[in-house]
């Protein structure tokens, strides 16, 4: 299912307000479509990622104390104490999110945003029937060993320069003063891109051509990052978190380059199994056909009068029975062996008052057997290849076909 990335407006959120959106293919890298629309008109998708604009977040590096930080409530109080003097707003009015893989005793990045605005964005989407699976930042600090990322965004009259590196995220107006403030070192090695509306302005100021990147393409890049701001009071239930992790793992397994060899290996394994099963089935089918052909040949050679073979065992039994009758031999469907088996199987003292035999079928009257006795007789006679059933005052005995 395609992933829908939604960027809320910075103004007060309302259902009719325009929300920027981008629809990504299953691989998370291909942009299918993008645009802006009210919540009710957003494209359908089971995977909804909320993207917080860069201007709605502030970034702070803090050193977590070593040891067990306990649950979410205790960790939140620790962050309140660490960030209280760095913030312009009261910590209670802000939402905090730790960087992925944060551990006690290490220096980690904390994203801070207005709690009310973020909660309103989530609630607006969920009220429109769009369950948010992740919350990601538009810009985020880079790992220490990663190159800086430089983005030129906005319109020609309000162009902005955003630098993301190991020291944090800085967003400044695109002008010479901002370049002097940033310095030339990060710009020389940065991976840069510019939106179409400000590309010419950025190239003139930086003195180099920059790759063109649509805003929606940046959103796809941000959604592929491991960040998830849905923490503390915005965290989902354990089942939902497990579902998110499984979904992310499944997406990585299906599309991530590092899993390409495993995917090809699985395909080869499945194909090998299919080929092997088909080869085995072909071998077994040939063996069965060979045995069937041998039986058919035996029937036609033994009884040349049989021209068409439909059921070789049954036809052979009939031919043997006919041969026995024609030569005076006794077959299982004859009266004598049928009476001998029946006499050995009837309860003591039970003698029929009338017999009627015709074409391998024996009818007896006057036995007066109970249902239990008929069931016992049926089981005993079945072991000797005869069927028995009661029909009113009669007991019907018949040899089983082909036995």
UniProtKB/TrEMBL annotation:
<keyword id="KW-1133">Transmembrane helix</keyword>
<keyword id="KW-0997">Cell inner membrane</keyword>
<dbReference type="InterPro" id="IPR024230">
    <property type="entry name" value="GspL_cyto_dom"/>
</dbReference>
<dbReference type="Pfam" id="PF12693">
    <property type="entry name" value="GspL_C"/>
</dbReference>
<keyword id="KW-1003">Cell membrane</keyword>
<keyword id="KW-0813">Transport</keyword>
<feature type="domain" description="GspL cytoplasmic actin-ATPase-like">
    <location>
        <begin position="35"/>
        <end position="141"/>
    </location>
</feature>
<dbReference type="InterPro" id="IPR007812">
    <property type="entry name" value="T2SS_protein-GspL"/>
</dbReference>
<dbReference type="Pfam" id="PF05134">
    <property type="entry name" value="T2SSL"/>
</dbReference>
<dbReference type="InterPro" id="IPR025691">
    <property type="entry name" value="GspL_pp_dom"/>
</dbReference>
<keyword id="KW-0812">Transmembrane</keyword>
<dbReference type="InterPro" id="IPR043129">
    <property type="entry name" value="ATPase_NBD"/>
</dbReference>
<protein>
    <submittedName>
        <fullName>Type II secretion system protein GspL</fullName>
    </submittedName>
</protein>
<keyword id="KW-0472">Membrane</keyword>
<feature type="domain" description="GspL periplasmic">
    <location>
        <begin position="256"/>
        <end position="377"/>
    </location>
</feature>
<comment type="similarity">
    <text>Belongs to the GSP L family.</text>
</comment>
<keyword id="KW-0653">Protein transport</keyword>
């Amino acid at each position: 299912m395609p992933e829908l990335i939604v960027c809320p407006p910075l103004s007060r959120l309302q259902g009719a307000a325009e929300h920027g959106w981008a629809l990504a293919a299953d691989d998370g890298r291909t942009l299918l479509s993008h645009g802006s629309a009210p919540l009710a008109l957003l494209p359908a998708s089971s995977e909804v990622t909320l993207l917080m604009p860069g201007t709605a977040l502030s970034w702070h590096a803090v050193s977590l104390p070593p040891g067990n930080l306990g649950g979410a409530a205790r960790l939140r109080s620790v962050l309140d104490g660490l960030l209280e003097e760095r913030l312009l707003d009261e910590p209670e009015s802000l939402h905090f999110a730790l960087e992925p893989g944060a551990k006690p005793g290490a220096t980690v990045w904390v994203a801070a945003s207005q709690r009310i605005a973020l909660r309103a964005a989530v609630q607006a989407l969920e009220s429109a029937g769009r369950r948010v699976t992740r919350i990601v930042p538009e810009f985020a600090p880079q790992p220490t060993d990663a190159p800086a990322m430089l983005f030129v965004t906005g319109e020609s009259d309000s162009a902005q320069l955003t630098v993301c590196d190991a020291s944090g995220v800085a967003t400044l107006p695109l002008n010479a003063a901002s370049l002097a403030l940033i310095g030339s070192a990060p710009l020389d090695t940065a991976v840069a891109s510019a939106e179409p509306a400000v590309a010419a302005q950025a190239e003139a100021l930086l003195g180099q051509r920059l790759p063109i990147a649509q805003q929606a393409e940046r959103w796809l890049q941000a959604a592929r990052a491991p960040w998830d701001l849905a923490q503390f009071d915005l965290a989902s239930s354990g089942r939902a978190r497990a579902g998110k992790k499984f979904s992310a793992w499944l997406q990585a397994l299906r599309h991530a380059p590092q899993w390409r060899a495993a995917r090809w290996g699985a395909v080869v394994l499945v194909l090998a199994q299919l080929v092997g099963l088909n080869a085995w089935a072909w071998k077994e089918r040939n063996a069965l056909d060979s045995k069937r052909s041998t039986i058919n040949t035996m029937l036609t050679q033994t009884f040349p009068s049989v021209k068409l073979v439909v059921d070789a065992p049954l036809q052979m039994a009939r031919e043997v029975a006919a041969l026995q009758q024609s030569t005076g031999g006794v077959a299982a469907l004859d009266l004598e062996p049928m009476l001998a088996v029946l006499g050995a199987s009837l309860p003591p003292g039970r003698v029929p008052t009338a017999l009627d035999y015709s074409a391998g079928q024996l009818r007896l009257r006057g036995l007066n057997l109970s249902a239990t006795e008929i069931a016992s007789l049926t089981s005993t006679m079945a072991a000797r290849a005869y069927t028995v059933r009661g029909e009113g005052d009669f007991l019907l005995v018949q040899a089983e076909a082909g036995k």
